[in-house]
Write a structure and sequence with these properties.
Elements lengths: L6 H40 L4 H26 L8 H8 L7 H17 L7 H19 L3 H20 L2 H11 L8 H22 L17 H35 L4 H16 L8 H8 L5 H20 L7 H20 L8 H18 L2 H12 L5 H17 L5 H15 L26
Membrane topology: Multi-pass membrane protein
Subcellular location: Membrane
Protein name: CIC family chloride channel protein
Length: 456
Amino acid sequence: MDRRSGNGVYYVVAALVGATVGVVGSAFHVGVEHLTAAWPAYLRDGLHLTGLPLYVAAALVGAAMTLVSLWLVRRFAPEASGSGVPEIEGAMEGLRTVRWRRVLPVKFVAGLLSLSSGMVLGREGPTIHMGASIAKAASDLMRWPTEDMRGLLAAGGAAGLAAAFNAPLAAVLFVIEETRRQFPYSQRSYIGVVLASLASAIVTQYLTGNVPYMLMDVPDMPYGMLPAFAVLGVGLGAAGVGFNGTLVWALDHVRNLGLSTSFYIFPAVVGLVVGVLMFVLPEATQGGELLAVQLAGERLPLGILAVIVLLRFVMTMASYSTGVAGGIFAPILALATTIGLCYGTALGTVLPLPDHALPALAIAAMGGLFAATIGAPLVGMVLVMELTGAYSMLVPVMVTTILANMTAQALGGRPIYEILLERTLAIEAQGQPAPRRERRRPAHKDMSGMPAAEDR
């Protein structure tokens, strides 16, 4: 029996899914912001802790939030680990299943805990995953066939990105460019994605405001600066390949450590460190979007910027490797900002730079590193424009972004989500030895390749 509905019904459902995602995404965003500020304030102002007692308490809180987040993921929804974007791409390709009944609550609560602990993770991945889960719920309710379900998954994921960054156009382009292999192209599915992203953006703007999330005011850059942006793009292309390779290396080593000991040891250590850093060096914690705006407005010494780059790189690898719920969009953008500022500061020591050159290079770097790691240059260009509102920077951003993507391809780089999906499928195909007492079903695994706690 053909359960395919008319276009009108499909469009209405897509818009309703987008609006729902806007509400859920806004609630998640506000929840993370409030909890991230609440627990440090309680330790410092409520309990009046200072010095060593404050650091010990912060370390314990950070570790507790991390471990509870990981336990929820491993116990109830292993596929909720990490970003969730590879899971959605796999589901659109028919390789994964979106179990929305367990992913939705686990991704929301576990993501709230992991992001609020101060780990260097982004909320966009969980929001995209929750958006696709809401779409899957709607598709199940409508009893739609596979093609419509996959189209609605893309619409829900796009609505999630629109809610996370208030960037509806970049969200539509993300589906077109990032999921070009899986997306079931048709007028029906394409319009559904646009409607879902638009509805999500309207709801998000109504609930949280219509100001670019990383607003930066940068005037036009002279064309004489374009060579500097081109060199930055080439460097970011190489950095993106290194970022992806290091992330996979870290995931593999943490997984091997967990198989030989316990999957909770490394996350506990990371949580302890992050808790202390929330007070000692907050620049090395959290997603970093607001930090990027702050740093772009300051003129920090080159040495300090280099240290921030190193710390955020290390903490991004450590945080994502724990297996908790959290994305990498925001950490990539914040890392790119600090790299751009570092590059601009170094360049300024040998060449005279125009006013506002540092924030301009920081903005362009966001698009460049995004294109080199995610492999979606068009999304990177538009996302940076929508996030910062710096539309005068369009040409320098395009130069930096496309050269970063070209360099990454020339070096053999591949999109990180594609790599992560293939890695998960390969680990799952290998299987795990069954318990000694009985043979059981194959273990469900999260995106880091770790079997769920109940399957060990």
